[in-house]
């Protein structure tokens, strides 16, 4: 499922990686737990993935690129539900014990084995088109904020607002299918600060005082997330003279943006001079992360993103999957930012926050 080329460890993780890095944030089980009995945490997460089956089945049924899509969608729903029940009875079955990475991987494996390559393609294309039309106005509103600290806060809020567009959340998938979502309204209606993890002031102060030289950003969803959240944020970094690497999935997963889709989006947003609303993009690079899930294990990334990240002094993991459910407590050799919205009740409970709460976790590393 992953890249054909050899995967490598992300070079900015501490060494030895084996003892210093664990991808999954939530402890699903402890050494004292019975290996043959699912823990309460494992069961709650299995139930979470089980609750998402109807929305995935609905998307798969309407995939016109797959022959007999409704029949195959039903097979997906049955097979995935059976495996989830197996994991409840025996957590070591199907490659367990289960965590969010394994549960995502099994779901993607079943879909691909049944011929489904990108069941969210239609909605991604529609949302990308909408967001592209809004991009100039979002950038103009940001540029009009003269105070640098306030402008950074506005851009951060834009990332949170864009990150709401997440069809991996059963609740949000239902809301989205009925009403759609307004980016600007979402910016205004974020849960008020302080957020459940709120290092905004520290991040602002560091950026204003001494901008980094190079950032690598592991991006999340299509639509408003990448176009109205991340790209205005990355554009501001380019304005300040930084180099920015945007690392996107190799293969489709839920509504996450892929490397090829990101290239297409940027080609539509750049003008004839290769600029993003007046900002030169020579220092904007896009990379194939080698990933194929909505979560990420940084012990296995593409050689391309590893090479481009070696000299970065800021790592950003964006979105609930990459920056909260995995990697929230990951340490790096350089500064890091984990930023995303909490869209699962189980995550909110673990963090002691609220559903749709925001996380901005900044770690500064003393440079020798």
Automatic annotation (TrEMBL):
Matches recorded under Pfam families: ARMT1-like_dom (PF01937)
Entry keywords, A to Z: Hydrolase, Manganese, Metal-binding, Nickel
Cofactor(s), names only, from the UniProt record: Ni(2+); Mn(2+)
Gene Ontology BP annotations: coenzyme A biosynthetic process
MF (Gene Ontology): ATP binding; hydrolase activity; metal ion binding; pantothenate kinase activity
InterPro entries reported in the protein's UniProt record: ARMT-1-like_metal-bd_sf, ARMT1-like_metal-bd, At2g17340, At2g17340_3_helix_bundle, Type_II_PanK
Domain Damage-control phosphatase ARMT1-like metal-binding, residue spans: 50-359
Domain of life: Eukaryota
Keyword presence, Metal-binding: yes
Record bears the keyword Hydrolase: yes
UniProt GO cellular component terms: cytosol; nucleus
The protein's name: Damage-control phosphatase ARMT1-like metal-binding domain-containing protein
């Amino acid at each position: 499922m992953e890249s054909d080329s050899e995967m490598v460890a992300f070079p900015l993780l501490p060494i030895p990686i084996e003892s210093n890095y664990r991808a999954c944030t939530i402890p699903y089980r402890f050494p004292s737990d019975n290996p043959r009995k699912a823990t309460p945490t494992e069961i709650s997460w299995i139930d979470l993935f089980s609750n998402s089956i109807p929305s995935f089945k609905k998307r798969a049924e309407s995939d016109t690129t797959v022959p007999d899509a409704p029949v195959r969608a039903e097979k997906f729903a049955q097979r995935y539900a059976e495996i989830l029940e197996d994991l409840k009875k025996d957590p070591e079955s199907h490659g367990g014990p289960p965590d969010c990475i394994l549960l995502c991987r099994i779901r993607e494996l079943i879909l691909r084995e049944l011929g489904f390559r990108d069941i969210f393609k239609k909605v991604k294309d529609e949302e990308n088109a909408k967001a592209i039309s809004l991009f100039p106005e979002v950038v103009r509103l940001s540029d009009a904020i003269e105070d640098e600290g306030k402008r950074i806060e506005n851009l951060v809020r834009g990332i949170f607002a864009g990150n709401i567009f997440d069809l991996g959340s059963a609740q949000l998938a239902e809301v989205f299918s009925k009403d759609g979502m307004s980016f600007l309204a979402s910016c205004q209606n974020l849960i008020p600060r302080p957020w459940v993890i709120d290092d905004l002031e520290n991040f602002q102060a560091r950026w204003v005082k001494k901008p980094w030289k190079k950032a690598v950003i592991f991006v999340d969803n299509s639509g408003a997330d990448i176009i109205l959240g991340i790209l205005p944020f990355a554009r501001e970094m380019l304005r300040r003279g930084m180099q920015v690497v945007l690392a996107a999935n190799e293969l489709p997963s839920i509504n996450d943006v892929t490397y090829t889709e990101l290239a297409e989006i940027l080609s539509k947003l750049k003008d004839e001079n290769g600029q993003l609303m007046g900002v030169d993009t020579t220092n904007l690079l896009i990379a194939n992360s080698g990933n194929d899930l909505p979560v990420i294990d940084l012990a296995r990334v593409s050689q391309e993103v590893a090479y481009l990240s070696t000299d970065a002094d800021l790592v950003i993991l964006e979105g609930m999957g990459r920056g909260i459910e995995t990697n929230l407590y990951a340490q790096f050799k350089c500064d890091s930012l984990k930023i995303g919205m909490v869209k699962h009740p189980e995550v909110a409970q673990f963090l002691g926050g609220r559903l749709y709460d925001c996380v901005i976790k900044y770690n500064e590393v003393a440079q020798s």
